């Protein structure tokens, strides 16, 4: 998990050189130097400019070669075409780290791409930590370092923020001032030539001034390294990320159902989930969650209480609580008894507690104190609307006094929600300045409470258990090699039967027949009723050509089904080679169809998918995903995450399926994908599962070309 060895020198340098420092106001080299000076940096600053003697009161250095040896950090504010030469000169004086603010590299393609590759090669040769290029720079607020060209400085706080977008950083710095959001670090990673998100995660995880890590991502450079570093970081402190660019348009060319469903965003979703990252869906949510973690303690449990002066918003809060899987807790009898002494007889004493629209500050504050003291309450939402009887600023100040008086070991997460505009703005500022998040509406308050509780569950979860299944890898490899020798990158069911046997996967009795007579004999031997399916290496989706007949009850029907399937397929797909038909035992009674698939993601590796099976999986889009290798808990959770889980658990008198058998198949699919990197996509669809066990009724494999 160790980051670049010179990352500490980058973010905590004793001396900084600004290459391209300018005396002209408005130029990047002037703004960066001015920001560094005004931020209060205590170390030595070297403005490098060959044409002037001083800039902003500091003596300049004429040439890079005149800088001291073993310089901690240099910031390049020069045109991109001069950056490589400057980096070579900095390498000669053994610079430890460099921030390249200059644009004109990989992001412009062509020569820019080539230039960035040269920068990477030089930086690795000399062990130089490089942030950027094409970045805003960074701010370390505690050390008084601001080497950005943004205007102003964010407030001090405990949120460590990094972003792939420099323009986004500029907007957030300005926006955060009005929202009372404070930062420990503010880092723009730019093109991530050397230092990437994995390094930043590790650095911030080890930073004592950072309580919560927040980031904006568009891509990940090294999927496996990101997973390792993210898991280690999230074990130390909350990590909240927003990932942009989540469309799955690239999945249109996929060969299987799994390929069509498991696009890039599904891989990121799985990566975040398995490494403990909390995913935000929009910018506002990103910083709402960040504030909650930065300012609030972790709750002891899921129980929520709401104190409100309006019935309607209280109901909205209760709905949001249920939506996010939290509990509107029942208050203890003694709490209700005390509330009846405080509130009018026509108030609502049960959760949500409605103090009524005419409530005075005293009534509201007494109610909040009473509810907070209830041991059944793990988190509190104070939900108020302005009325003639509620001076919001006074209430905010009195609530802060109540919250501050709570002993540290008794503190609970408190989410205030003051609904309104100009009438509540100052009250919200009072609360947020004191360290208590204040929201516009109930839903984001409940969402933040949910995130805090999810983090608690993650921290307390047992270590994952990985499973390796017995298999005959030599036999499986021979099946794959045979297909490649024959020039086939797609294995239909009858070709892939050897893989099922090699991994000891349970299957319905299945035999290949090449004539109608064989179809009758095999069907009779298997025992009626049976299923018959077309066997062709060129046809993966059998139902598209009418290549499946179910519930064949006797020999005559078997003969007719064989002739019908083969003749229809020849008519619809004259290009396809037909090997015959597969005869298969019918699904056991009570079976439900599910799909287990895998698609290899270019960054994160095999992505395993689970959902309801059959022909409707792409239409319903009800599925769950995880990255291989799956653990026991991954397999367990995948099955229970889909909306159709109640169907598997048993409805209207049906028996629940054998979950252990289904989990085994998920784990074996994970193992298969890890064993053979040549497998680009694989699918068991359908898997027939009932209370007794699970059977893989169909398989298809898509292999990568040898060249790729």
From TrEMBL:
<dbReference type="Pfam" id="PF13549">
    <property type="entry name" value="ATP-grasp_5"/>
</dbReference>
<dbReference type="GO" id="GO:0005524">
    <property type="term" value="F:ATP binding"/>
</dbReference>
<feature type="domain" description="ATP-grasp">
    <location>
        <begin position="497"/>
        <end position="533"/>
    </location>
</feature>
<dbReference type="InterPro" id="IPR013815">
    <property type="entry name" value="ATP_grasp_subdomain_1"/>
</dbReference>
<dbReference type="GO" id="GO:0016740">
    <property type="term" value="F:transferase activity"/>
</dbReference>
<dbReference type="InterPro" id="IPR032875">
    <property type="entry name" value="Succ_CoA_lig_flav_dom"/>
</dbReference>
<dbReference type="Pfam" id="PF19045">
    <property type="entry name" value="Ligase_CoA_2"/>
</dbReference>
<dbReference type="GO" id="GO:0046872">
    <property type="term" value="F:metal ion binding"/>
</dbReference>
<keyword id="KW-0067">ATP-binding</keyword>
<dbReference type="InterPro" id="IPR043938">
    <property type="entry name" value="Ligase_CoA_dom"/>
</dbReference>
<dbReference type="InterPro" id="IPR036291">
    <property type="entry name" value="NAD(P)-bd_dom_sf"/>
</dbReference>
<dbReference type="InterPro" id="IPR051538">
    <property type="entry name" value="Acyl-CoA_Synth/Transferase"/>
</dbReference>
<keyword id="KW-0436">Ligase</keyword>
<comment type="similarity">
    <text>In the N-terminal section; belongs to the acetate CoA ligase alpha subunit family.</text>
</comment>
<keyword id="KW-0547">Nucleotide-binding</keyword>
<dbReference type="Pfam" id="PF13607">
    <property type="entry name" value="Succ_CoA_lig"/>
</dbReference>
<dbReference type="InterPro" id="IPR011761">
    <property type="entry name" value="ATP-grasp"/>
</dbReference>
<protein>
    <submittedName>
        <fullName>Acetyltransferase</fullName>
    </submittedName>
</protein>
<dbReference type="Pfam" id="PF13380">
    <property type="entry name" value="CoA_binding_2"/>
</dbReference>
<dbReference type="InterPro" id="IPR016102">
    <property type="entry name" value="Succinyl-CoA_synth-like"/>
</dbReference>
<keyword id="KW-0808">Transferase</keyword>
<dbReference type="InterPro" id="IPR003781">
    <property type="entry name" value="CoA-bd"/>
</dbReference>
<dbReference type="GO" id="GO:0043758">
    <property type="term" value="F:acetate-CoA ligase (ADP-forming) activity"/>
</dbReference>
């Amino acid at each position: 998990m160790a980051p670049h060895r010179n990352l500490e020198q980058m973010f905590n340098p004793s001396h900084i050189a600004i290459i391209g420092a300018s005396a002209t106001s408005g130029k990047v080299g002037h703004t960066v130097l001015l920001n560094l000076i005004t931020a209060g940096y205590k170390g030595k600053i070297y403005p490098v400019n060959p044409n002037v003697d001083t800039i902003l009161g500091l003596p300049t250095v004429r040439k890079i070669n005149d800088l001291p040896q073993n310089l901690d950090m240099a910031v390049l504010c020069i045109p991109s075409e001069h950056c490589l030469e400057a980096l070579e000169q900095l390498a000669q004086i053994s610079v430890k780290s460099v921030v390249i603010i200059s644009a004109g590299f990989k992001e412009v393609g062509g020569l820019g791409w080539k230039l960035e590759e040269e920068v990477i090669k030089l930086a690795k040769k000399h062990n130089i930590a490089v942030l950027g290029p094409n970045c805003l720079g960074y701010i370390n607020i505690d050390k008084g370092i601001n080497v950005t060209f943004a205007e102003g400085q964010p407030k001090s706080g405990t949120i460590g923020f990094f972003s792939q977008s420099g323009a986004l950083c500029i907007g957030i710095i300005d926006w955060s001032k009005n929202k009372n959001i404070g930062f420990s670090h503010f880092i723009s990673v730019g093109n991530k030539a050397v230092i990437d998100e994995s390094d930043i995660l590790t650095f911030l995880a080890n930073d004592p001034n950072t309580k919560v890590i927040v980031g904006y991502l568009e891509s990940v450079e090294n999927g496996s390294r990101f997973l390792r570093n993210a898991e280690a970081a999230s074990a130390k402190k909350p990590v909240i990320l927003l990932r942009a660019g989540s469309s799955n348009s690239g999945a249109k060319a996929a060969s299987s159902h799994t390929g069509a469903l498991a696009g890039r965003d599904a891989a990121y979703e799985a990566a975040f989930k398995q490494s403990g990252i909390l995913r935000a869906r929009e910018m506002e949510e990103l910083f709402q969650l960040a504030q909650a973690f930065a300012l609030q303690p972790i709750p002891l449990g899921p129980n929520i209480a709401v104190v409100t002066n309006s019935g309607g918003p209280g109901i909205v809060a209760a709905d949001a609580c249920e939506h996010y899987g939290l509990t509107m807790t029942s208050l203890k009898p003694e709490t209700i008894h005390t509330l009846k002494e405080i509130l009018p007889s026509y108030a609502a004493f049960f959760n949500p507690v409605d103090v009524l629209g005419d409530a005075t500050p005293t009534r509201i504050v007494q109610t909040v104190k009473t509810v907070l003291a209830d041991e059944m309450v793990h988190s509190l939402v104070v939900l108020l609307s302005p009325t003639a009887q509620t001076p919001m600023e006074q209430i905010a100040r009195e609530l802060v006094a109540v919250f501050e008086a709570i002993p540290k070991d008794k503190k609970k997460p408190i989410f205030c929600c003051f609904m309104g505009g100009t009438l509540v703005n100052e009250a919200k500022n009072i609360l947020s300045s004191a360290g208590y998040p204040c929201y516009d509406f109930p839903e984001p308050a409940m969402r933040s409470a949910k995130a805090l509780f999810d983090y608690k569950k993650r921290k307390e979860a047992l270590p994952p258990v990985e499973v390796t299944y017995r298999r005959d890898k030599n036999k499986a490899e021979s099946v794959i090699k045979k297909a490649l020798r024959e020039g086939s990158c797609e294995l239909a069911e009858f070709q892939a039967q050897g893989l099922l046997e090699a991994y000891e996967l349970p299957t319905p009795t299945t035999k290949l027949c090449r004539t109608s007579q064989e179809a009758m004999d095999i069907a009779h031997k298997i025992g009626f009723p049976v299923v018959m399916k077309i066997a062709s290496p060129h046809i993966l989706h059998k139902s598209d050509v009418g290549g499946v007949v179910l519930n064949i009850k006797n020999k005559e029907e078997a003969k007719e089904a064989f002739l019908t399937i083969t003749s229809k397929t020849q008519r619809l797909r004259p290009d396809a080679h037909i090997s015959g038909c597969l005869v298969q035992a019918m699904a056991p009674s009570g079976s439900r169809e599910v799909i287990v698939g895998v698609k290899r993601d270019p960054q994160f590796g095999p992505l395993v998918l689970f959902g309801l099976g059959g022909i409707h999986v792409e239409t319903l889009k009800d599925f769950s995903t995880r990255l291989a290798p799956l653990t026991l808990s991954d397999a367990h959770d995948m099955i229970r995450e889909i909306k159709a889980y109640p169907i598997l658990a048993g409805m209207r008198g049906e028996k629940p399926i054998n979950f252990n058998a289904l989990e085994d198949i998920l784990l074996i699919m994970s193992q298969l994908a890890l064993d053979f990197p040549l497998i680009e996509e694989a699918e068991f669809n359908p898997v027939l599962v009932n209370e007794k066990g699970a059977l893989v009724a169909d398989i298809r494999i898509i292999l990568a070309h040898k060249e790729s």
